[in-house]
Amino acid sequence: MTVAVVQFGGSNCDRDTVQALAHLGIDADLVWHEDGLPEETTGVVLPGGFSYGDYLRAGAMAARSPVMDEVREAADAGTPVLGICNGAQIGCESSLTPGAFTTNESARFQCERVTLRVENADTPWTEGFDEGEVVEFPIAHGEGRYEIDDNRLDELEADGRVLFRYCDEDGNVTPEANPNGSKHSVAGVLGDRDSVAVLMPHPERVSLPDIGSTDGQGVLRAFGE
Ligand SMILES: NC(=O)CC[C@H](N)C(=O)O
């Protein structure tokens, strides 16, 4: 049982992710994208970073790597797939998940801790949380503003495919608590299956007790089942 953490040129959260998974007793390995997914792959993480220097649009180049065809096949077969930050951008650029992550409203790179409200606790990524629970994760992105057409967003909302929303410390979803101008304050969404998810905040950066918080463990535990 091995989770493949797929490295592209410019990935930089790959090792942190392996370490965070290992801390939870989940076997994970770095996989260079040109090498393809190993046969024993039981989960896939598209990690954060700056693949191809965010050239064109963040995630646009990595989404065209042949390994993404394998990731899609694995996802279609029910293998859990999680895109984190740049991995979320790659997930949307490759249509594994709906919508797109575009330039922050501030037009700046933002690195800060944010609070998130768990919108649907009935998914593998959130079953360790309560619905409405407020958790704190870091963000570190320049292109994290979630965009999607209104009809599609209404469908996602109706289907419970919004996983996390930016909120204030009391769980109120307000424009002030939305760090990047994401539509409906969306911070994470599910793909067609609930085994596929992407989120802009970084659960792997809040998964090791030594770093001070373990709020992110619930997300990564999905790979332990
Ligand atoms: N931390 C990350 O993965 C960064 C994502 C991407 N490079 C951005 O700035 O939007």
From TrEMBL:
<dbReference type="InterPro" id="IPR029062">
    <property type="entry name" value="Class_I_gatase-like"/>
</dbReference>
<dbReference type="GO" id="GO:0004642">
    <property type="term" value="F:phosphoribosylformylglycinamidine synthase activity"/>
</dbReference>
<keyword id="KW-0315">Glutamine amidotransferase</keyword>
<keyword id="KW-0378">Hydrolase</keyword>
<keyword id="KW-0658">Purine biosynthesis</keyword>
<keyword id="KW-0547">Nucleotide-binding</keyword>
<dbReference type="Pfam" id="PF13507">
    <property type="entry name" value="GATase_5"/>
</dbReference>
<comment type="function">
    <text>Part of the phosphoribosylformylglycinamidine synthase complex involved in the purines biosynthetic pathway. Catalyzes the ATP-dependent conversion of formylglycinamide ribonucleotide (FGAR) and glutamine to yield formylglycinamidine ribonucleotide (FGAM) and glutamate. The FGAM synthase complex is composed of three subunits. PurQ produces an ammonia molecule by converting glutamine to glutamate. PurL transfers the ammonia molecule to FGAR to form FGAM in an ATP-dependent manner.</text>
</comment>
<feature type="active site">
    <location>
        <position position="202"/>
    </location>
</feature>
<keyword id="KW-0436">Ligase</keyword>
<keyword id="KW-0963">Cytoplasm</keyword>
<feature type="active site" description="Nucleophile">
    <location>
        <position position="85"/>
    </location>
</feature>
<dbReference type="GO" id="GO:0006189">
    <property type="term" value="P:'de novo' IMP biosynthetic process"/>
</dbReference>
<feature type="active site">
    <location>
        <position position="204"/>
    </location>
</feature>
<dbReference type="GO" id="GO:0004359">
    <property type="term" value="F:glutaminase activity"/>
</dbReference>
<comment type="subunit">
    <text>Part of the FGAM synthase complex composed of 1 PurL, 1 PurQ and 2 PurS subunits.</text>
</comment>
<protein>
    <recommendedName>
        <fullName>Phosphoribosylformylglycinamidine synthase subunit PurQ</fullName>
        <ecNumber>6.3.5.3</ecNumber>
        <ecNumber>3.5.1.2</ecNumber>
    </recommendedName>
</protein>
<keyword id="KW-0067">ATP-binding</keyword>
<comment type="pathway">
    <text>Purine metabolism; IMP biosynthesis via de novo pathway; 5-amino-1-(5-phospho-D-ribosyl)imidazole from N(2)-formyl-N(1)-(5-phospho-D-ribosyl)glycinamide: step 1/2.</text>
</comment>
<dbReference type="InterPro" id="IPR010075">
    <property type="entry name" value="PRibForGlyAmidine_synth_PurQ"/>
</dbReference>
<dbReference type="GO" id="GO:0005524">
    <property type="term" value="F:ATP binding"/>
</dbReference>
<dbReference type="GO" id="GO:0005737">
    <property type="term" value="C:cytoplasm"/>
</dbReference>
